[in-house]
Design goal:
- The complex is a heterodimer of chains A (482) and B (98).
- Chain A is 58% helix and 6% strand.
- With 482 residues, chain A is an alpha/beta fold.
- Chain A has 2 domains: 206 residues, no CATH class; 180 residues, TPP-binding domain (Rossmann fold, 3-Layer(aba) Sandwich), CATH 3.40.50.1220.
- A 6-stranded parallel β-sheet of chain A has the order 3-2-1-4-5-6.
- In chain A, helix 17 links the parallel strand 4 and strand 5.
- In chain A, helix 1 runs parallel beside helix 10, helix 9 packs antiparallel against helix 10 and helix 14 packs parallel to helix 18.
- Chain A is elongated and about 80 Å long.
- Chain B is mostly helical.
- Chain B has a domain of 68 residues.
- Chain B is 84% helix and 0% strand.
- Chain B is flat and about 50 Å long.
- The chains are: A alpha/beta (482), B mainly alpha (98).
- At the A-B interface, helix 1, helix 2, helix 4, helix 5 and helix 9 of A face helix 1, helix 2, helix 3 and helix 4 of B.
Chain lengths: 482, 98
């Protein structure tokens, strides 16, 4: 535990700043100041570490300055350059880096000691550790395990999000056995290495733990489909916090423990929110294999639809002309087509014509929690118009036109009407209740769940085939001309 | 005793985190996640402390990478969160201006 020193007290101040920062992050009005408060806390923690007698003495300044300058440059450039549509990948990547940094902290603590011909964990303060013995060893193992899983898992998630590898579940033969072997083997090697290892053997065993944990991270995220990434990204976010927390146990620093635990709890809550929004358990998501090409019963291909009506841009514009209330339902397709700006312009045009305009946001629309909100905020849609599922669902009945852009499963009435459907019980946006539904979509292809969507065939539905952005640009032009 | 204290701290922090975030509106899910992510970069403190142990080039490179990774997480995380939140609040000002 940190001593009762100026540095210890300033760490306490940093902890309080983090807590207040997170609290303020949970309200739109105060969120920006909350983030800045947390950043101040971080700056304080870093400065204290650099100048305090406990941390600063014997510090290798070359290492510190090169490392921080490099990191600040890379992080700053990435944060400035990223497009809002690329946000899920960036968050996943940063997350992975944080996890890997925690791994490094634990490995270097371990290496630093075993490099000096140690056998077995250091016992007590006399040997330079705050928590000695088995606790030290277990904290090292957990820190490396969680940090490395966070790193490789985040990289796979990022590759899936950016389309570098297929978003479909990738099922390896015998994957449950593989993951089990990697996990147990890795932990076994790590525990043996840290408790009983000597010199180089210990280092190699801990290397085996790192390798096992890294492969485990890869193998466990591969079978999870692209649209389940909101859950995965939130869970990995939680892990990166826990990894930092464990690193705190390793070096005996309560600031790391608290800050890491706060993040761990935050990530876990988001994970649960996402699971609830899909009516699936966390276990079900993590086992993977959901969606993609795997469901056999009803593939939902174009051939299954018989009575589909389609509308071109002209017809769509005519329908909108007489509408007095409009709800937009965006999905991942809107992000892909980068259609958020034209959606907002169309919304404004409808308001100019006296219609009320709202947006219905499903919690798992997109590829990370709150993805749609960020995109629409970028396009300057007032957040008061963005309504969550519970608030908007009562309004579809009295709405003239609902425009669905690139969303599918989250408006599929099967979830309510067919108890045998794979998505039965999943909360959906009741778009089908509105007067007319305009479904802007490239084709009749199924959504992530890989099932037929009867909404396409409803009497009040018009399919608007095409690229979301191009289609809406034309509709907007038609409306302005009329 | 120290271990017990630390476990107390850990568990209480989880409870606090739970309380703080359980009512966050979906609008803020992304900024919350990326802001929390930046906070998890606190591991930079650990990375800096480990920079004391560096003997030799390999250890030094190791230390540089660890510090650089944590710094990317911290700097990038806070900056990108601020960028997002600026979009949320700028609208409001414009609206008031109208």
């Amino acid at each position: 535990m940190d001593g009762f020193t100026p540095a210890g007290l300033l760490y306490l101040v940093a902890t309080v700043l983090f807590i207040l920062g997170i609290k303020r992050l949970s309200k739109v009005r105060t969120a920006r100041s909350g983030n800045q408060l947390a950043a101040v806390g971080m700056l304080l923690a870093i400065v204290v570490t650099l100048v305090s007698p406990e941390g600063g003495v014997g510090l290798d300044w070359t290492t510190v300055i090169i490392g921080m300058a490099l990191g600040a440059l890379v992080g700053g450039v990435m944060a400035k350059r990223v497009e809002m549509t690329g946000m899920p990948e960036l968050v996943a990547l940063f997350n992975g880096f944080g996890g890997l940094a925690s791994t490094f902290v634990a490995v270097s603590e371990f290496w630093g000691r075993y490099g000096e011909h140690m056998t077995g964990p250091p016992k007590d303060a006399a040997e330079g550790v705050v928590l000695g013995g088995g606790v030290w060893a277990i904290a090292i193992v957990l820190s490396i395990l969680i940090g490395t899983v966070t790193f490789t898992g985040s990289l796979v998630a990022m590759a899936k999000l950016s389309g570098k590898i297929s978003g479909n579940p990738i099922i390896l033969p015998g994957r449950h056995l593989i993951t089990l072997v990697l996990l147990i083997g890795g932990i076994g090697a790590g525990v043996y290495g840290t408790f009983y290892g000597e010199g180089n053997t210990a280092i190699m065993l801990v290397g085996a733990l790192t390798l096992g944990a890294g492969l485990f991270g890869i193998v466990s995220v591969l079978p999870i489909g692209g649209a389940d990434m909101p859950v995965v990204v939130s869970l990995l976010n939680s892990y990166s916090g826990l990894a930092a927390s464990m690193a705190g146990f390793v070096i005996g620093n309560s600031l790391l423990i608290v800050a890491g635990a706060l993040v761990g709890a935050a990530g876990l809550i988001l994970t649960m929110v996402m699971c609830k929004a899909m009516n699936r358990s966390l276990g079900n998501v993590l086992v993977g294999g959901f969606g993609g090409d795997t469901s056999s019963a009803s593939k939902g291909g174009a051939e299954e639809y018989t009575t589909v009506k389609s509308a071109g841009t002209e017809e769509a514009a005519m329908i909108l002309e007489s509408a007095t209330s409009v709800i937009f339902v965006p999905g991942y397709g809107m992000a892909v087509a980068q259609a958020q700006h034209v959606v907002k312009e169309l919304g404004e045009e409808m308001e100019r014509r006296g219609a009320t305009v709202k947006y219905g946001i499903h919690p798992v629309a997109g590829r990370m929690p709150g993805h749609m909100n960020v995109l629409l905020a970028e396009a300057d849609v007032p957040y008061e118009q963005l309504l969550e599922l519970e608030k908007i669902n009562g309004e579809f009945k009295t709405t003239d036109v609902t425009i669905i852009i690139g969303a599918n499963d989250v408006v599929n009435p099967e979830a309510i009407e067919n108890p045998k459907s794979p998505i039965a019980g999943m909360p959906i946006l009741n778009a089908f209740e509105s007067g007319t539904v305009l479904m802007v979509k490239r084709s009749l292809s199924p959504g992530y769940a890989g099932i037929k969507n009867p909404l396409f065939e409803r009497d009040n539905t018009y399919m608007c085939f095409g690229d979301g952005k191009a289609f809406l640009v034309d509709v907007l032009a038609e409306l302005k001309n009329s | 005793m120290i271990l017990l204290l630390m476990l107390f701290v850990f568990l209480l922090a989880i409870v606090v985190g739970n309380e703080l975030i359980s009512k966050v509106p979906p609008t803020l899910h992304t900024p919350l996640m990326s802001g929390a992510n930046a906070i998890s970069g606190i591991t930079i403190v650990g990375a800096l402390m480990c920079a004391q142990f560096t003997h030799g080039l390999a250890a030094q490179i190791f230390g540089i990478v660890a510090i650089a990774l944590a710094t990317i997480n911290v700097v990038g995380g806070f900056m990108v969160t601020d960028r997002m939140l600026a979009m949320f609040s700028s609208k409001k000002k414009k609206k008031e201006g109208k």
